[in-house]
Amino acid sequence: MKKELEFSEEAKNLKAGIYLHYKGNEYKVLGVAHHSETLEELVIYQAQYSDFGLWARPLTMFTSTVEVEGKQVPRFAFRTE
Fold first, then answer.
1. Could you give the dihedral angle defined by the CA atoms of residues 30, 36, 39 and 40, in that order, rounded to the nearest 10 degrees?
2. How many CA atoms lie within 13 A of 12 on its CB side?
3. Closest to 56 (Cα-Cα) out of 39, 35, 81
4. Digit-coded pLDDT (tens) for 9-55
5. What CATH number has the domain bearing residue 61?
6. Cα–Cα nearest to 17, from 46, 42, 41, 40
7. pTM
8. Which of 3-7, 18-22, 69-73 is least confident?
9. Residue 32 CB-half CA count within 13 A
10. Residue 56 confidence (pLDDT) above 80
11. What does the CA dihedral 12, 80, 62, 23 come to, rounded to 10 degrees?
């Protein structure tokens, strides 16, 4: 029997809910999944505008910061559940 994959503490602590992208759009985090080939942790999230498209982004990138007008800000900031 194959051993079940474990998630990192960062993945376990990522809250499901609405996040604000630093460019202004809202997204709903549905959960974290493993990439089928690389086993990389991916955040699965849905746009809360337009066609409500589904997206996947590496957890490390999702939780990273970006520079805006000389200041480091979260790429995605948690808003509400």
1. -50
2. 5
3. 35
4. 999 999 999 999 999 999 999 999 999 999 999 999 999 999 999 99
5. 2.30.30.320
6. 46
7. 0.91
8. 3-7
9. 20
10. yes
11. 180
Identity at 73, one-letter amino acid code = V
Whose structure tokens read 């051993």? Answer: 3
**Domain tally, the chain:** 1
pLDDT of 3 reads 67
- Residue 71 is assigned to a structural domain of this protein: yes
Domain assignment of residue 2, yes or no:
no
DSSP characters for 28-58? EEEEEEE-TTT--EEEEEEESSTT--EEEEE
